[in-house]
Amino acid sequence: MSRQMTVSFPGGRRVNAAWDSFEVATDQSEKNGGDGSAPEPFQLFLASLATCAGIYVLGFCQKRNIPHDGVRLHQTWDRDEKTKKLTTINISIEVPADFPEKYHSALERAASQCAVKKTFESPPEFHVETVVNS
Predict the structure, then answer these.
(1) pLDDT tens for residues 40-66?
(2) 55: phi then psi, degrees, rounded to nearest 5
(3) Which of helix, strand or coil describes residue 129?
């Protein structure tokens, strides 16, 4: 995967990010002046946390040949409405009754290995600049 994304503005309140052969579309909700045609960027951020934990849970099950039918993750969050910052993110791993109990805490540890979560816990430095095209 390349280490560069290009962001474009295809119209309205839509903002897309492209890298390698992928493009991710975002939009603002109607209440925020958009068409609601795609998730808002913050929603994609939240989805990246949940799906990242999910890939670790899936990998845990696949590595041990544990059926993952009926395994689901549920993510909830709390947000300070004044500052708009997240205060808590909760992920619950739902397993079927026949899921081996001896793996419950190991499954939680696997989900906690998520690279997005780890980046959030030790955030990188951000640098923003304006570059004039010649």
Answers:
(1) 999 999 999 999 999 999 999 999 999
(2) -70, -30
(3) coil
Distances (CA, A) of 74 to 37, 49, 78, 92: 24, 11, 14, 5
> For the packed helices 41-63 and 104-111, what is the interaxial angle rounded to 10 degrees?
140
Residue 2's SS3 state is: coil
Tell me the DSSP string of 86-99.
EEEEEEEEE--TTS
Q: What is the pTM of this model?
A: 0.88
Write down the pLDDT at residue 1.
Answer: 72
Q: How far is CA 17 from CA 9, 51, 131, in A?
A: 9, 18, 18
Query: Would you give the DSSP letter of residue 84?
Result: T
1 vs 85: CA distance, rounded Å: 30
Angle, alpha carbons 117-120-122 (nearest 5°): 115
